[in-house]
Amino acid sequence: MKRRRFVQALVAIPAAAPLAAQPPAQAQTGNRGAAAADDPKLEVAAAENAADGVPSFFTPAQFSALRKVSDLLAPPIAGSPGALAAGAPEFLDFLMGKSDAARQAIYRAGLDGLDAHAKQQFNKPFADLDNSQADTLLASLRTPWTFEEPSDPVARFLRAAKSDVRTATANSPASSAGGRRFSGSGLYWYSLD
Length: 193
Prior knowledge:
Layout: H1 2-21, H2 24-29, H3 47-50, H4 60-73, H5 83-86, H6 88-98, H7 101-122, H8 131-137, H9 153-170, H10 173-178
Helix pairs in contact: 4-7, 6-9, 7-9
């Protein structure tokens, strides 16, 4: 067997020399040669950069109210993007679609409650309120924090949304590039492709 392998190696040496002398691009493309240079180059993009997300969990009225709340809780500050520019409402729509039923109920009840209070006090939906009107409905955010969950569904929602909106804003790609600093800044996870 040793002699057979020796002869095979001797025969392979003349064939290996021309392959080693080829430039790397030609060696990779094989017989195609210059035709490979004419192949189109496809640009690759992450899904969140290619198109806007379409809300799928919240109703249009709930999503409009969530956008308004997000804008009030995390506005643009000193040139850094706010919640709307960071896409926090779209992310929360995705997150709530994957969350447990109890968390989904908190968001739905809270957003519906905000709209009901806005229609009762100002005769228009929460999303259409100006900032001073909306501020009166967000009064529960100014109460001291306790370990007990608030009994009011709107207050319970606002407590959860305050944390979620800030976290989603701080960890977005727009905020990571823009320099907004909350406790979790820079922890944005890019999708694996």
